[in-house]
What does this fold into?
Amino acid sequence: MVLTTLLSCLQPAKNKPTRKWTILRALSLGFIMIIVPTLSGCGSGGDSGAGGPTVSGGGPAGPLSASLAWDPVQDPSVIGYFVHYGTQPSNSSGSCAYQQSAYTTSPTAAVTGLAPNTTYFFAVSAYNGLESACSSEVSTVTASA
It folds into this structure.
């Protein structure tokens, strides 16, 4: 959408596109065709297979925390991950619609400062300059205070 808007700003005012415009549009479309398949492999969401995040309550970070681990994305362009979490589920496969998120460069995370005796929902997305869809959702209940 942003690229379409940007390209429309570059298009000549005449109804007939110039040769330069046609070449620019073709190059841009080619770039999109290369990038989009790369990102769709970064946690395409709804995948319940192996490699999705697992969560355990408590642990080294304390009783009001959650420790998560997942298989790293095997794409060298991935530079990190967003751990999305909240007290409400996303209600949509691949969605990253949670109340909070945290960034990490490793395929593990410890989320601290959670409320006692509360269910938390988690999902992870890969990041390589653009964010992928979220993984399958996992949940845990924190310990009582």
